[in-house]
Amino acid sequence: MGNNAVLVLNQNYEPLNVCNVRRALVLVIGGKAEILEAKALGMSSVSAVFPAPSVIRLMYLIRRPRPRVKLTRREIFIRDGYTCQYCDRQGSDLTIDHVIPRSRGGLHVWDNVVSACKTCNHRKGGKSIAEARMSLRKQPHEPRAGQYYTIERRLDTAIQTDWQKFLPGITPSLPRSYARSQGTSIKSA
């Protein structure tokens, strides 16, 4: 999203989402949001120039359930700290292993998937952990979505400096694309 990213706050200033400048302007012009922070450059139309928002606040309160972490490869690697759950080897060259193999009725759910290096995954194969004479370093579980989960997962760039006062406790970080290439995860405080 880069410089096109806009932080969307609920009426009570709770961070809700990240959207693009165009969507933010539609909300502002429609009277559904107000601009709290603007970028130096404006957006031009045929007849007017609008400030390009960086942070907007909705005029009405959105009630939403606490988000759940989506079951994806990336989220499994983040949960497991980019570490093989069998041999404790860290790295970015990991695979996903089903603790109870799918061929034996294991489901693709948080409690049954772990990060594994290729060597351990190949060694375990379609066997149970006991049959493969292996052990897990920690039991898999569904991670709880953090306070800024929806914001962090939508960013491909570092947190913008003008967002920091609206995101207390989050640390400005490296762009996700850089962190992924280095095999590290981005963490908030």
From TrEMBL:
Q: Which Gene3D superfamilies match?
A: 1.10.30.50
Q: Which domain of life is it from?
A: Bacteria
| Pfam families per record | HNH_5 (PF14279)
Tell whether Protein transport is among the UniProt keywords.
no
Spell out the molecular function terms from Gene Ontology.
Answer: endonuclease activity
Q: Which UniProt keywords apply?
A: Endonuclease, Hydrolase, Nuclease
Ranges of residues in domain HNH nuclease: 71-122
In Swiss-Prot or TrEMBL terms, this protein is called HNH endonuclease family protein
| Species whose genome carries this gene | uncultured Thermomicrobiales bacterium
